[in-house]
Specification:
The chain has 434 residues and is of the alpha+beta class. The protein folds into two domains: 229 residues, no CATH class; 139 residues, Sulfite Oxidase, Chain A, domain 2 (Alpha-Beta Complex). It has eleven helices and ten strands. The strands form two sheets. A five-stranded mixed beta sheet has the order 2-1-10-5-6. Helix 1 packs across helix 3 and helix 4 crosses helix 5.
Amino acid sequence: MNAPRRTARPRLPAGPWRSPLRGPWLTSVFGAVLLAGLPVLFLTGLLSYAAYNPDLSPLNDKTPAKGLLGFYLFSWPTHPAWLYRLNQGVHVTLGVVLVPVLLAKLWSVVPKLFTMPPVRSLAHALDRLSLLLLVGGALFEFVTGLLNAQLDYLFPGSFYPLHFYGAWVFTGALAAHVALRLPRTVRALRSRDFRAELRTPTARTRPEPQDDSGLVSSHPAEPTMSRRGALGMVGLGSLALFAVTAGQSLGGPLRETALLAPHGRDPGSGPNGFPVNKTAAIAHIRPQDLGERWRLVVRGPGGRAATLTLADLHALAQYRAALPIACVEGWSTENQHWEGVRLRDLARLVGYPSDPPGVFVESVQPAGSFRAVALRANQVRDGRSLLALRVNGAVLSYDHGYPARIIVPAAPGVMNTKWVRQLTFGASDFGEPA
């Protein structure tokens, strides 16, 4: 007589994290992609900061207490002219593209954030601390970066020091995490054949073997997606974000595809029809400040000075330069054709016949960041560095800096001061303007 069949007990979930996709292999794949991209983000971020020449002037330096963290700073070059455009295009576009990968990586390791007990030993406590700094730092850097690029930075506080210090904290935590986990990551990547996973459908998807990683559920649910599908979904998300972001840096017809670019998708037409970050109205520029009473004051050593009207500037030798505008938010223009007076020729008016020094540039703008900046000697001496009076064959519009603005090769957009009122060559103190 056959014994009665025993009904199998249902398997109960050990917590809410039951996806059969979670495991060391998938986590390591996302981690490998981030490990390739995050160092590029960090490097381009450091280069972006160096482009402001923060060690030249307190006005350029938005992170004055950086101390040893500024060890790498160098004189930002003017060649090639597209250097900053490339740097910021890569930095911002790559940062946006990596968002789906970052979110997927966090999803894959979320069970680790809720392991109990939270601390089992000193070594475990240090590991948990590095994980907290890693996850918190990653979210902070990506959120603040996206806010700055997309919403004119609505996060409380100053973007520059927050993003700068946050990058160092996050990168330190990332370095510690990689040092601790790299051997395990390599073993996990080798544990499964990548091509085989891409050929595995949902019906044949199985959980990874149980191990001590804490990522594999002890009671996995039935799969509703394959690992191939998960990787494809993340990859498609990154591709879609690239498609709606990269056009702001690449320009041309692709600018219309930059749906995530708030600056200048439709900048208008005509010679002045290219993006602008800060309009005259936003900068509180009054028409009377730029009218017939406007004068440019050029100062040099020993009290030498020259006061020039707009007509005086037009009477000087005019030069042309084809240069882009590129901003920290990642947007840039194609080359615009500028025309005006070379900075080194203005330095000659006040006692520098050759080898002019740096210059302190002040704007009519009454308040706000970068209403005054300092430029290095190498920037002044470059023949393409102009006090521009015209662009693309037309007089500058008010929003583009009428009656005169700075244009310097490879410099961040905010260093190309608009509505210029005074140039001081060889200033011993590049301090706050009066």
